[in-house]
Amino acid sequence: MTERVWHKASYSAASGSCVEVSEGAKTLVRDTQNENLGYLGFEAKEWAALLGTLKK
C-alpha cells in the first residue's frame, strides 16, 4: 500500500478545528489533533454529497 498524502481541508483552516483529507480511491478524513484515533473513509459519490451538503 502506498503512503497517503494528507492536507488540511479548506473548510476547516479558518476555524482552528482542523480536519485533514487524503484523496485517492477513497477520500479519508481525520481530526488533526487526534490522528491516532483513525479516520473516516468515503467513496467519491459520498464525499461529493457531503461537500454539497456543507456548502448549503
Provide an overview of this structure:
- The protein is an alpha+beta fold and about 55 residues long.
- The chain is about 20% helix and about 25% strand.
- The chain is built from one helix and four strands, in the order E-E-E-E-H.
- The protein has a four-stranded antiparallel β-sheet with strand order 1-2-3-4.
What integer value in Å does the Rg equal? 11 Å
How many DSSP-defined strands?
4
The largest sheet, given as strand count, sense and whether it forms a barrel, is:
4 strands, antiparallel
Question: How is the largest sheet built, in terms of strand order?
Answer: 1-2-3-4
| Strand-pairing-aware structural class | alpha+beta
Q: Beta-strand percentage?
A: 25-35%
Q: Overall 3D geometry?
A: globular
Please estimate the helix content. 10-25%
Secondary structure tally, helices: 1
Report mean pLDDT, rounded to a whole number.
Answer: 84
Note the gap between the termini.
36 Å
Order of helices and strands: EEEEH
Low-confidence stretches: none
Could you give the topology of this structure?
Blueprint: E1 7-8, E2 19-22, E3 27-31, E4 40-42, H1 44-54
Antiparallel strand pairs: 1-2, 2-3, 3-4
Labels describing this entry:
single chain; 56 residues; alpha+beta; four-stranded antiparallel β-sheet; 20% helix; 25% strand
